[in-house]
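Q: Could you predict the 3D structure of peptide chain release factor N(5)-glutamine methyltransferase?
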Amino acid sequence: MELSDALYLSKQVLLQAGVPSPEADSYWLLAHTLEIPKSELLTLLTLGYQLTEAQAGGFKENLDKRASRIPLQHITGSAGFRNIELHVGPGVFIPRYETEQVVEIAIKILSGLPGRPRVVDVGTGSGAIAISLAKETAADVYAIEIDAAAAEFAIMNIKSLTANVDLRIGKFEEELPKLRDLDLIISNPPYIPLDAVPVDPEVRDFDPQLALYSGADGLEAIKELIALAPVSLKSGGWVVLEHADGQSDMVCELLLSAGYEAIRAHPDAAGRLRAVSAKWRS
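A: Sure. Here are the predicted structure tokens for peptide chain release factor N(5)-glutamine methyltransferase:
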């Protein structure tokens, strides 16, 4: 089978399966099957490369998995996030582009602080936020993860990316108070209401429920974080919280009622309010 034929077949199969990005996923599946960078795949396409029988078989297997709506990242075993490549798979939340922008909010705050700020990422999952902050700032970075399966991926990523992150495994209600004088607490917590089941099978069937759902209104974890954060924050310390589209006003009100200052809602690339930053009173 010629590479271009495999690409065309993949696009058609994924399109019929309802995959949101059939063309992009087809390129990534082929690159993964051939164990080459995507840029090299484009070169092979122009040269009329012929897949070997083994390669064609491997590609068919990966294509069938993706057509059944297994996440692309579970097939490739990796997910890009900002400037890093993370190990991911069943049992850990796949980091999203929106969270990359939430990290940028934290980086801007940290850039204005002297010395080595102290930061914790609550609910670190794969370690995406914590590792990015450790790589891109001068902060001392901690991370908390309750789920053992997700923590295994965080441990793997911290090691493979040689990131200086102190990972704590346990409930954040127990682990966060052990950290004091923090300059910033950041989290992409679960924020989906229990009855708002996601439509996309990749999310609904494969992301850990612990990373998705948070009470009847989706705000249970955020409420707990807002209430508990002052125990660990220094005076004038910050919180940065990701939330769902449509929750911004509620999160801002919760922060205001709890005594936080300088509350600001942040839009994502599409203009949707998807994160809030706030300072604990000085």
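Q: Anything worth pointing out?
A: The longest strand covers residues 233-242.
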